[in-house]
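okkk here we go again. third time trying to get the zinc ion bound version out, last two times i messed up the smiles copy paste (missing a bracket lol). double checked this time i swear
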Amino acid sequence: MRLNLQTIIHSPGMTLPFAFQMDLSDVEIYSEKPVTNPVEVSGEVRNLAGVLELKAVVVTDLDLVCDRCLKTFRKEKKVVLDYLLAQELQDEEAEENILLLEGSELDIEELASTSFILDMDTKTLCSEDCEGLCDGCGVNLNEEACRCQPEVDPRWAALSQLLDKPE
Ligand SMILES: [Zn+2]
Ligand SMILES: [Zn+2]
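finally!!
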């Protein structure tokens, strides 16, 4: 989706709201395709005393697999966009959050999907204190106790042999 800002570009005080959905279900992120649901984008461009300001929220529910316990879970992912828009850069040392328009247009879908993908976490955990799976028996330690046989310390084994001996 492209926004045509022609109508507000020279009209201080005007706002141009927008809202649309994106389908990012084919996008691979760290060799997964976690964006199973539509991504909602909503926001507005506002002409503040001649300066164009873009504010938007990009949000969806991700279906993820925990890196530690391998459980699938659903988590809301929200990215906030906050930029200034300009038709040309006035000085060399431009601020980082200024976006250049193509003429009077902005490809908001491109901006929203790129920002969303770049903001994805490298690590996926169902919760910060996920206990993960036991290396020995493989149970999910968040849900059940470890089934591994307790290893008997050889010193205790010797002692218990002594104690078991009939007097
Ligand atoms: Zn987990
Ligand atoms: Zn175990």
